[in-house]
Amino acid sequence: xxxxxxxxxxxxAEVLALLRGRWDASYDxxxxxxxxxxxxxxxxxxxxxxxxxxxxxxxxxxxxxVVDQLNGLGVAGLVRRWLQETPDRPRLxxxxxxxxxxxxxxxxxxx
Length: 111
Prior knowledge:
By secondary structure, the chain is an alpha+beta fold. The chain has one domain (5-109): Protein of unknown function DUF3067 (HIT family, subunit A), CATH 3.30.428. The protein contains 4 helices and 3 strands. It has helices at residues 12-23, 56-73, 76-85, 106-109, and strands at residues 27-34, 37-46, 96-100. The protein has a 3-stranded antiparallel beta sheet. The longest helix has 18 residues, at 56-73. It is globular. The termini are far apart. The model has no long low-confidence stretch (mean pLDDT 89).
């Protein structure tokens, strides 16, 4: 059976295009650990805000790190579909959260 094209690794430019295409903003992405679970969060702050604490270069570097970690976890397809399909949108004080499944690699990230 051929691999699902949705499971190909994420690229930083692709994630940025998904964020901008979906919500017209370059939202901040974070990996957050709570207990033994790992979450991908789309924060309410975004690059285009005057008060955003990162420069464009710092934002891109941070996004690259998150994308690399997501690819390392093997959840590219899940994240891609979620960013395309979630009915919610980030709002002030409320991040969007996706529980990342443990595929045997979470212990590498849960130090």
